[in-house]
Amino acid sequence: MLVKCMLPNSIVESEGFREWVAYMDPCFNLPTRHTVKVSGMPSLRKFVDETNRQILKTIRWPNVSCDGWSDNVVRSWNGYFVQGISDDWVMHNIPIDFREVKG
Question: Residue 3 has what pLDDT?
Answer without folding.
Answer: 67
